[in-house]
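Support request, priority: normal
Reporter: lab tech (M.K.)
Component: structure prediction queue

Hi team, I submitted a job for Hemin ABC transporter substrate-binding protein from Pseudoalteromonas lipolytica yesterday, and the status page still shows it as pending. I've pasted the exact input below so you can check whether something in the sequence is tripping the parser. The sequence length should be 269 residues. Please let me know if I need to resubmit or if it's stuck on your end.
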Amino acid sequence: MKYLSVMLLLLSSSVFAEQRIVSAGGTLTEIIFALGQQQELVGVDQSSMYPKAATELPQVGYYRDLAAEGVLSLRPTALFALEGTGRPEVLKQISSTGVTLKTYPKPDSISELNSLITNLGNELGAQEQARALNQKIQNSLPEKSSLTGKKALFLLSANDRGLVAAGTDTVPQMLFEYTGIKNLAQTHSGFKPLNREILAVEQPDFIIAPAHVVYSLGGKDAFCKLPALSLLKAAQNCKLLVMDSLLSLGLTPRIAIAIEQVSEYRNKL
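Reply from support: The job had stalled in the queue. We restarted it manually and it finished. Here are the results:
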């Protein structure tokens, strides 16, 4: 019996060691690194910006628009794909070559993040590391703040067609709930155009936007001067918190850091 157990353990370790994984989705990549299993990675997508070591791996494009050729060129044994990865025909083409396709739901709550970490830990033979990481996250979370009277918007885009803001069932909404801030876009779920009538009644005390959006438009000052934001006093005074895109849009093991950043900015107002 003891001999059989040893053989099964060796076989299991061998299977895990043989994996060549392409990770499509910054949340997945960050968790794989946090589990200490980055040696299994042979490539990542462009949203995998943390930790820095992830950016040094071969890239296969953006996870929502993968090309089969880029993924297959790395000779992976498995593609770990976050919900929303690629077009169905591309994923089918990749899996038809014998590459194992593992699709994971995008977490929108702490419990879903815990489940994702557990699932990845099981897949990578890192169950103990997964349990430890989940406990670390739980210990790092602050108590949810009561409402502070502060109001804010998280903007994904601002142009002639309007403002696209984070509503309920998003990571920004979670950040607002932990920091006692009223989300003026909580009238809708997900990321959708904001009803301008809302801003005629209430104005945000500040705005949050992801770094890739702000810097693609020329930086903080340029973002605040966008015509689409001209009626917002928060924009006129450039009350803008620019956050790391993955930290603010994807639920990752660094969620406590994201909460702290929003809380600190709120306290400065």
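The chain has two domains: 12-140, 151-268. Residues 1-16 have pLDDT under 50 and may be disordered. Let us know if anything else looks off. Ticket resolved.
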